[in-house]
Structure formats: C-alpha cells, structure tokens
Amino acid sequence: MQGEKFGCKVVKSGGLPAVGRNNGAKAAKGGILLFLDADSLIENNFLENAVNDMERRKLDAAGSYLYPLGNRLLDRFFLGIFNVWTWITQFFYANACGTGIFCRRRLHEKVKGFDETIKLSEDMDYAKRCGRIGKFRMIKNSKVVYSMRRYDKEGRLRVAFKLLLSAFYRPIFGEIRSDVFRYNLKYKK
C-alpha cells in the first residue's frame, strides 16, 4: 500500500462517513490530512504529486478530479461533467467529493471537521467551509480512479439524478440532514 511508506493508517468506524473521517483526523499525526472513500483508487505517485502541488500553490485544502474505473463512455461523461463543475466552482464555491480531499490540520480544526449531522454531501459542505476560510483548489497533477459500483447497483441515471438534485437542493434549502433523496448508503451504525 503506497500510503504506508508515508506513515498512513486506515481508521475504520461505523456510521455515516463524517464520523469516520473525523475519527481518522483525530488519529492522524501529520499536518496534511487526506480523506478517501472506499471507492477510491490512487495512482503510484498520487500523494507525493498532490502534496507538492499543494505546497507549490500554497493551498490550505484541495479536492481531486475523478476518473471512472472502467471504460464506459457514460461513466466518463458523468464524471467529466462533475470535474468541470468542480473546476469552475473551486474559485468561488468550493466543492469536492470525498473520494479525495486534502486539508491542512489547522484548517480542519478551525472548521471543526466534517458535520456529523449531514446525511448526504457532508464532503461538499466540508469543502465549502474550508474554501471560505482557506485557499481551496483542485489538485492538478494527480487523479483518483473511482469505482462505479454504486452506479452499477442502483442505475446510473438514478444515482446521477439524486446527486444532481442534491447539488441544487443544498444552496436553496441548506445541508441535507434527512434522507430526503433516499440515497442508500447502507453504513453500519
């Protein structure tokens, strides 16, 4: 595992993703935190390239662009739209998916970590709050390969529609603290 040479430790915790992410941050010892989903695959030099990009650009937090595991044209299209959206919004309304978020520990502590009351898009809320206080941008030279297993199981259009609705819901009605979109996370409590 690439992260082991950098002293990385995987922290597992039942419940919603925000709980596990915050527990991981508490266990971490470094000055830069990296949050990855179980669906994330990273390339060999991902950590080194991403941290160098953060240092060079003096970033406090950063998101990663997503690329699908597999070669389905529809998957590349969906994630391509998402990548364009995160590239555009990085300058005024930071967005990042939990498949790859970097944050300096001091900023993570300042924003009080991930909001554990949010049911869906806690990662987007986190990026938004980090971007309000610190310098947030998307990492340019490293990519995360994303498993499309949720799309395979629930259907691509269904998942994409729920995520699109949630993107419009959040700025109008606030963070998603109920299961209004019936997004099936199936996490152990």
Q: Summarize the biggest pleated sheet.
A: 5 strands, mixed
In DSSP terms, counting alpha (H) and pi (I) runs of 4 or more, how many helices? 7
Structural class: alpha+beta
CATH class (first level) name:
Alpha Beta
The overall strand count is 5
Shape: globular
3D architecture notes:
With 189 residues, the chain is α+β, with helices and mostly antiparallel strands. It has one domain (17-173): Spore Coat Polysaccharide Biosynthesis Protein SpsA, Chain A, CATH 3.90.550. The protein has seven helices and five strands. It has helices at 17-27, 46-57, 73-89, 105-110, 122-133, 149-154, 156-173; strands at 32-35, 40-42, 61-68, 101-104, 136-146. A five-stranded mixed beta sheet has the order 1-4-3-5-2, with helices on both faces. It starts with 16 loop residues before the first helix and ends in a 16-residue tail after the last helix.
